[in-house]
Design goal:
It contains 22 helices and 42 strands. The strands form 10 sheets. An 8-stranded parallel β-sheet has the order 13-12-11-10-9-16-15-14. A 6-stranded mixed β-sheet has the order 2-1-3-5-4-8, covered by helices on one side. Strands 27, 29, 30, 33, 34 and 35 form a 6-stranded mixed β-sheet that branches. It is α/β, with parallel strands linked by helices and about 950 residues long. Among the domains are: about 5-135, Chitobiase, domain 2, CATH 3.30.379.10; about 140-410, TIM Barrel (Alpha-Beta Barrel), CATH 3.20.20; about 765-865, Immunoglobulin-like (Sandwich), CATH 2.60.40; about 875-955, Immunoglobulins (Immunoglobulin-like), CATH 2.60.40. Helix 5 (about 255-275) links the parallel strand 10 (about 175-180) and strand 11. Helix content is about 30%, strand content about 20%.
Length: about 950
């Protein structure tokens, strides 16, 4: 018998969400439907409410059966024997406490909440187990600082990614999201994420969000999907990896202002969503630098006029913001007294224009400045700094926490290894209790990625609710994590393997990738390619690293063979693939020749037998989320750091060539240069082969079957970079370039293709995995299908139903009008979310093989429909289209943005037809090139919460 849920007569939106979340998770785990009511004939009743606002819970407190929680965000969970049914009480000190308590109750079923996903228990519960918990946060502000500046992190997030991020933080009982915006690059390029903007004497500056082709920094070359090696392009949903906030901005009228306005619209929505659910957003920037355009115009960063201009922009753009953080820049040149003067100007000005805003200091490893600053600055200024990389807690934290808010920022991963495992529980077990003992107000973990460090985030979130200075032991936490993912029977050995992975990584006792220097401010060692690039030379250290990772990968392979169930296999495959990537990456370092030899042909052959292709293929196999897609851009060709001549190492280490440049160095010494890589997909007509063009060359294509000598398929050299082979059998293919004098290049790297009737395993990437939606609004869902067959063989179907509904509805998914052909989109209509949450599954096929999301047999994904502030706006007016430009008049209501669609058939627009949004201030839009002629363009207004008005249509000319 499923439990009955009882809320207060007039529940807050937090309590309403708590009930809806409990209902949908119970349905996901058991398949049963819970109901709301005030009685249960049998089974359990779950009472959710706030002290003093829920009559029956208050009666239990008055009778002594239940304790009242004490302190903000705290809660009490207790099983009480009632007159007719067992009662599970969830009593919060406030609405947020009631929601936290509900999520904590769900963990008693075996559900685990991580940064980008939920993991459900394998066993089906019959009821909530007995519970008796009184819990309160040990630290007031608990949160994360996902750092903008790498595509491995939040630079590529749109609103849906940020909403999902906040949803998962809320489930883990975290309440603060901190974001940093660079004021300027500390080397050659200006850097300024366009969430903040000000002018000087009428002079402005350009702002940008990184994409994989525009505004690239840190040595990353402009990269489209098809620039990546082998099958790596398949993981991108669009040709360019980018936030929706960065799409089609440069083509627009008033491009600079609209770029800022579009990004600010995104951040305004993020702020509104966070605060609606009792969370806070902190915006930070560097106060001691200004963009070069302003500097050239005579603007001085520390001038009080400049500092006030920064504040004016923040206050005008984000009037609800409550926290502003100002950093010494990463390569600061200001002394402490100058910083104190700047902070005093900002503090006094905030007191005048925005007294609700708390000023927070910030920088890198700056605790030694605290005493001098503490003696002068007002007690309501919060002091903050990034801790040393090894999370050392210096005595200054306890000293300042006695008299002012102290915000500590430990590194729970470092940016020197964003393509490798960075498990850190042993270090966190030792360091985090020291921060709690120091009495800090906030602990904010800095990180970039999601899935690879989810156990670090979960440990941090749990630790900040520890009542004493003790901590959960790292082995115990690894064991629980492994039991959840791999199965209880593999918990001990799986947990031990995860501890071994930590020992080989950044935070490990056997660190072979970046070690921390004695001050915690730099690195000593080699790392994966987003920091160190691919380097070459056969060094013994690379061989030792490869051997260690091979041992880990083999052990995980053994566990995978022993695992039971789809989930355990998928989870172990992820860790195995990650370890194989590390093994092959370091083995390629060891195998690749130091330099092109006198005879470059053996060097070319050795390069492509070195294992770098295996490394990239294992990296592709490990991708599970958007930051890992960004990491793949770093790894597939090694084009992040040290890819350009003008980028020097931040620690003075020898600059290493990128893989691509090294490959070109060898190829350039050959009489005829071969194609650097060859890709292949099986199609309905045979096998499609394609390769990058070599200037001045034609090509010969070769096929080798069953180990035989290669057969030339092209009696005469062909032009272009594509060939279709009508063979249905399995084979290995190579291509050779033919020079103008008829000379042949060495063979390209080979590629293997399975026979037509061989099943090719499919995999689905569903990004982002929506967790909530606005009640009555559609839910957009995207699935990227990874397959060895071409996109024209692929199909995908979305199946959904409302919680409590018996019938499944099917919707054919379609590729996006601006996306790649193997990413499919569909929407659950708003009618399904109008009164309830929804569950869904996705089925994909290439005609021979199938894949499902979720991959576990019998499970389904779910989205909770929650109330949002505001109401749907009206329709835009007078939509006109001329010369590829849309123009319209404003819609009625509280409009945050206008969404633009292009359809090429009948019916209303959906997510596959979506192009982008523009901020509410914008009334025209230049359509991107490449849209088919004769389509219909649609415009729709949306408010900050996501309520949408009617879409209006125009015809393109």
């Amino acid at each position: 018998m499923p439990p009955v849920i009882q809320l207060a007569e007039q529940p807050s939106h937090h309590e309403t969400r708590a009930g809806a979340e409990l209902r949908r998770y119970w349905h996901q785990v058991t398949g049963e439907i819970t109901e709301f009511g005030d009685a249960a004939a049998d089974g359990q009743r779950v009472l959710i409410g706030v002290a003093g606002r829920h009559a029956e819970l208050d009666a239990l407190v008055a009778a002594g059966s239940l304790r009242a929680p004490q302190g903000a965000e705290s809660y009490v969970l207790r099983t009480v024997t009632g007159e007719h049914a067992e009662i599970v009480a969830v009593l919060g000190a406030d609405p947020l406490g009631a929601l936290y308590g509900t999520y904590r109750l769900l963990t008693t079923l075996g559900i685990r909440f991580f940064l980008n996903r939920d993991v459900l228990p394998s066993d089906v519960p019959q009821a909530f187990p007995p519970v008796d918990l009184v819990e309160a946060p040990a630290v007031r502000r608990r949160g994360l600082l996902p750092w903008h500046d790498f595509l491995n992190g939040p630079s590529a997030y749109g609103f849906e990614e940020f909403r999902r991020y906040l949803d998962q933080m809320l489930k883990m009982r975290m309440n603060t999201l901190v974001l940093h915006n660079y004021s300027r690059g500390y080397r050659s390029a200006d850097i300024n994420e366009p969430f903040l903007q000000f002018t000087h004497d009428g002079v402005g500056f350009d702002g940008f969000l990184d994409t994989s082709v525009d505004n690239v920094r840190w040595g990353l070359a402009p990269t489209r999907a098809d620039d990546l090696a082998f099958d790596a392009p398949d993981v991108l949903s669009h040709d360019v990896l980018a936030s929706d906030a960065a799409r089609f901005t440069r083509e627009q009228p008033d491009a600079r202002d609209n770029t800022f306005a579009k990004a600010k619209t995104l951040m305004q929505r993020v702020l509104a969503y966070a605060q609606h659910w009792g969370m806070e957003l902190v915006l930070g920037t560097d106060f001691d630098l200004v963009p070069r355009a302003l500097q050239d115009a005579g603007c001085e960063a520390l001038d009080p006029t400049t500092l006030r201009a920064r504040v004016d922009d923040v206050v005008a753009t984000y009037p609800q913001l409550r926290y502003l953080q100002l950093y010494y820049s990463e390569s600061h040149h200001v002394d402490t007294q100058q910083a104190i003067a700047a902070y005093q100007v900002v503090h006094d000005y905030l007191a005048e224009v925005a007294p609700q805003v708390t000023l927070i200091t910030g920088s890198w490893f700056q605790e030694e400045r605290f005493p001098q600053m503490d003696a002068v600055l007002s007690d309501d200024v919060a002091f903050s700094s990034l801790l040393p990389h090894d999370m050392t807690v210096k005595p200054e934290w306890a000293q300042i926490a006695e008299r002012r808010p102290a915000w500590a920022i430990p590194w729970i991963e470092v940016d020197g290894g964003l393509c490798e495992p960075q498990l850190a529980l042993d270090t966190m077990e030792r360091r985090l209790p020291q921060l709690r003992a120091a009495g800090v107000e906030a602990v904010i973990g800095i990180l970039w990625r999601e899935r690879p460090v989810e156990v670090n985030v979960a440990y941090l979130a749990d630790d900040l609710w520890q009542a004493s200075t003790s901590a959960t032991s790292a082995p115990t936490y690894y064991r629980d994590y492994a039991s959840t993912l791999f199965g209880a029977e593999l918990g001990d050995v799986g947990g031990a393997l995860l501890a071994d992975i930590e020992a080989l990584g950044v935070y490990g006792k056997e660190t072979t990738t970046p070690q921390f220097d004695s001050q915690g401010g730099g690195y000593d060692g080699e790392t994966t390619p987003e920091f160190g690039g691919w380097f070459f030379g056969g060094d013994d250290a690379s061989d030792r690293r490869s051997v260690r990772w091979e041992w880990i990968a083999d052990a995980l392979d053994e566990l995978l063979r022993a695992a039971k169930g789809d989930r355990a296999h998928d989870e172990l495959a992820y860790w195995r693939d990650t370890a194989r990537w590390m093994q092959c990456y370091w083995q390629a370092h060891y195998n690749v020749p130091r330099a092109a030899s006198v005879d470059p042909e053996p060097a070319w052959d050795r390069l492509h037998r070195s294992g770098f292709r295996d490394a990239i293929e294992w990296h592709v196999a490990s991708v599970r989320d958007l930051p890992m897609v960004g990491g793949l851009l770093s790894a597939a060709g090694g084009r992040w750091y040290f890819g350009t001549d003008d980028h020097a190492s931040p620690t003075g280490r020898k600059r290493r060539e990128s893989f691509r440049r090294y490959e070109e160095q060898i190829a350039g010494e050959l009489p005829v240069r071969p194609p650097a890589r060859l890709s292949a997909k099986r199609t309905p007509d045979g096998v499609r082969l394609w390769w990058p063009l070599v200037a001045g060359s034609d090509y010969l294509v070769y096929r080798a079957s069953d180990g035989a000598e290669p057969e030339c398929l092209t009696p005469h050299p062909i032009r272009g970079g594509e060939y279709i082979d009508d063979s249905s059998g399995g084979a290995d293919y190579t291509v050779r370039a033919v020079g103008v004098d008829g000379a042949l290049s060495p063979a390209s790297p080979s590629v293997a293709v399975l026979a037509d009737d061989d099943p090719v395993p499919l995999r689905l990437l569903v990004l982002p995995q929506a967790q909530t939606c606005v009640r009555g609004e559609p839910v957009w869902i995207a699935a990227t299908v990874l397959s060895g067959r071409s996109a024209d063989t692929l199909t995908a179907t979305l199946r959904y139903r409302a919680v409590g509904e018996g019938e499944w509805h099917a919707v054919a998914m379609r590729p996006s009008v601006i996306g790649r052909p193997n990413t499919f989109w569909a929407a659950v209509p708003g009618t399904a979310t109008a009164a309830d949450s929804i569950v869904y599954t996705i089925d994909a096929s290439d005609g021979h093989s199938t894949a499902n999301h979720p991959p576990q047999q019998g499970e389904f994904a779910a989205v909770t429909a929650v109330a949002g502030d505001g109401a749907a706006p009206g329709a835009p007016g007078q939509l006109r289209i001329a010369g590829g430009r849309l123009m319209w008049t404003a819609a009625a209501g509280d409009v945050a943005e206008y969404r633009i669609f292009a359809t090429f058939g009948d019916g209303e627009p959906g997510p596959a037809d979506y192009i982008t949004y523009v901020p509410a201030r914008q009334r025209e839009f230049v359509l991107p090139d490449g849209l088919p002629a004769g389509g219909r363009v649609w415009l729709q207004a949306a408010d900050r919460a996501g309520h949408t008005g009617p879409a209006i249509r125009g015809e393109t000319t």
